[in-house]
Amino acid sequence: MSGGGPGAGGATGPEEFRRVLRYLRPYIPRMVAAGFCMLGVAAFTGVFALLIKNVLDDVFIRGDRFMLTLIPGVILATFFLKGLFYYGQQYLMGFIGQGVIRDLRGEVYDHLQEMDLRFYQTHPTGNLVSRTLNDVNLLKETIDTSFTSLLSDSITLVTLLGVVVYRDWKLALIAFGVAPLALWPIRLFGQRMKQISRRSQETIADLTDFLTESLAGHRVIQAFTAEARARERFAAHNQLYFRKLMKKTQARAFTSPTVEMIVAVGAVAAVYYGGSRVIAGELTPGTFFSFLTALIMSYQPIRKLGNLHVGIQEGLAAAARIFQLLDEPPGICDRAGATELAPFAREVRFESVSFRYEEEWILRDVALTARAGETVAFVGPSGGGKTTLVHLLPRFYEVEEGAITLDGVDIRTLTLHSLRGQIALVGQDTFLFNTTVRDNIAYGRPAATEAEIVAAAQAANAHTFVSALPNGYDTVVGEQGVRLSGGQKQRLSIARAILKDAPILILDEATSALDTESEALVQEALTHLMVGRTTFVIAHRLSTIQQADRIYVVDGGRIVEAGSHAELLARAGLYRRLYEG
Ligand SMILES: Nc1ncnc2c1ncn2[C@@H]1O[C@H](COP(=O)(O)OP(=O)(O)O)[C@@H](O)[C@H]1O
Ligand SMILES: [Mg+2]
C-alpha cells in the first residue's frame, strides 16, 4: 500500500543527500549570508567565554573597580550582538528550508499532473497526499534544523575549542581525548533512525489513505452504520503511528545523554587535573574558569551535532520516498518528435486494436471506422469492454497491439495536448470542482465569455435550474457537486463539453443514472451537443441510439455484430436479444 519500495532506506544515503543539496543551489547567496551570521554568533559566544577570565582574575581576585564597571557592559553588548546574528541566521535558514520545500512540493505536484490513469489506479490518493505533505514537511525539518545546526554548531564548537586550546592545550587534550568514542552511538542511532523513519512515514501514508477514503465515503459509512468499525480501524492506524513516533522519540532521547555521558567523562578528568594545577598555583583561577566555561558551553553544540546525524537520517528517509515518486516516469507522454493534430476532418479508425490492463486481454482485434460527423454507438453486456474501448481514443491508456488513427495519423505520434484538445468526454460519473457553476462550465475554456457560458448552459438544458439557484451562476456547487442532483450535475458536465466545442465527442452512458424526467432533459441536451460532431456513444438504453449511423455490439472484448438498428434487428443476434430483453 504505502510502497516504501526497494532501495528506500537502504545504502542510498549519500546519493539522496547529494540530491537534496541540489535543491539548495538557488539559495547559495542566502546561505553565504547565513554563514556570515553564524560566524557572528560563534565569535560572540567565544568572546563571552574569554571574558570569564577577566571577571575572575581582574574583578574578583585583583579587585579592579574599573573592570567591575566595564565588564558588565561588555557582556551585555556581547549578548546583544550575538542575538542580532542569531536572528539573521534563523531567519535566513528558515527561508532556505521553507523555500526548498515549496520548490519540492511544486515539483511533486507538477509530476503528479503528468501521471496517467494506470498510475492513479495503483497509488491511493491518501498515499500521494501524504508524500506531498508529510514527507516533504519532514524533509523541511531536516533542512532548516539539521543544516542550520550542522553549519552553526560546528562553527560555534570550533570557536569554543579554540578558546579551550588557547587557555590550556594540555587540559583540552584531556577533555576531548574521549570525543571519538562519542561517534559510535551517533552512528548507531542514525542508522536506526533511518529505518524507523521510513516505517513511520509508511504508517502516516496509510493513515492519510484511510482518512481520505473514509471522508469521501462518509455517506456509505453512515448508510451501513459502520461508524464503529471505521472508528476502530482508524484507532488502529492512529495507534500504530503513535508507536512508530515513540520509537523515534526514544532514539532521539537516547542519543543526547549517551553522547553527553561520554563527553562528561573527559570533562571530569579535565576538572580533576585542572583543579590540582590551580591548587598547585600553576594556573590562575580565571584561566581555569574561562576554560571550564568554554568547555561547558561547547556541550550544547556537541549535543546538537550528536543529534544531527539522527535528524538527517530521518529526513533522508522521507527524501527517498519523495524521490521514488518523482522518479516514476509517466506511462503515457509525448514521444520524441510528437506532432500537433491538425483540426480533425475525415475519420477515426481502430485497426485491429488489442488491449489489456493486466494479464488478461480486455479488447481483442477491434476494427471500426467513424467518419467525420457520424454517430457510432456501442452496446453490449456490462463488462464487455465498451468504456475501455473509448478510453483508448484520448490515450488514457495506450493501445497494445494494432493502432488508432485520426485522419490517417497514429494517435501515439501526436502530442497529448493537441489530441485531447479535440475530444470532449461526458462520462457516467460526473466530476464537478468545488467552485462556482460558472467556473465548472468554463473549466475547459477559462477565457469563455459570459454569453458563451450561458449559451452552453441553455443548450445543455441547465440554464433554467442554474438561474433558479440562490446565486445563479455564482453558486458554489460543493465538493463534487453535492448541492446538486444527479441530473443537474450531468447537465453541467454536458454544458462543459459543449463549451469545449471539440470536433470529437465521447458519451459513456451519460444518462444511465438518471430518472426518466431528467433523462429526457439530458437526452435533449446531448442531441444538441452531437450536432455536427463525430460522436462515440455508449448507451445502456437502446432506445437512445436507434438513430446512430452504425451500432457496434461489443461482447467479451470483441465486436460481435455491426450495422444499423434495422440491420441488426433483422439479423436476430445478440443485439435483437438485448433489444427485446
Ligand atoms: N482499470 C482497470 N484495471 C483492470 N481491469 C479493468 C479496469 N477497468 C476495467 N477493467 C476490466 O475490463 C473489462 C471491461 O470493462 P469496461 O470497459 O468498463 O466494460 P463496459 O464499459 O463494457 O462495462 C471488465 O472485465 C473490467 O473488469
Ligand atoms: Mg462502461
Secondary structure elements and pairings:
Blueprint: H1 13-22, H2 28-61, H3 65-114, H4 117-122, H5 125-167, H6 169-176, H7 179-216, H8 218-223, H9 227-279, H10 285-297, H11 299-326, E1 347-356, E2 361-371, E3 375-379, H12 386-391, E4 401-406, E5 409-410, H13 416-421, E6 423-426, H14 437-441, H15 450-459, H16 463-468, H17 486-500, E7 504-508, H18 516-530, E8 534-538, E9 550-555, E10 558-563, H19 565-571, H20 574-580
Parallel strand pairs: 3-8, 3-9, 6-7, 7-8
Antiparallel strand pairs: 1-2, 1-4, 4-5, 9-10
Helix pairs in contact: 1-11, 2-3, 2-5, 2-10, 3-5, 5-6, 5-7, 5-10, 5-11, 6-9, 7-9, 7-11, 9-10, 9-11, 15-17, 17-18
The structure holds adenosine-5'-diphosphate and magnesium ion.
What does the model show?
63% of the residues lie in helices and 10% in strands. With 581 residues, it is of the alpha/beta class. The protein has two domains: 314 residues, ABC transporter type 1, transmembrane domain (ABC transporter transmembrane region fold); 234 residues, 3-Layer(aba) Sandwich (Rossmann fold). The protein has a six-stranded mixed sheet with strand order 6-7-8-3-9-10. A hairpin with a 4-residue loop joins β1 and β2. α2 packs antiparallel against α3, α7 packs antiparallel against α9 and α7 crosses α11. The radius of gyration is 35 Å and the shape is elongated. The N terminus is likely disordered. The site of adenosine-5'-diphosphate has 11 residues, from α12.
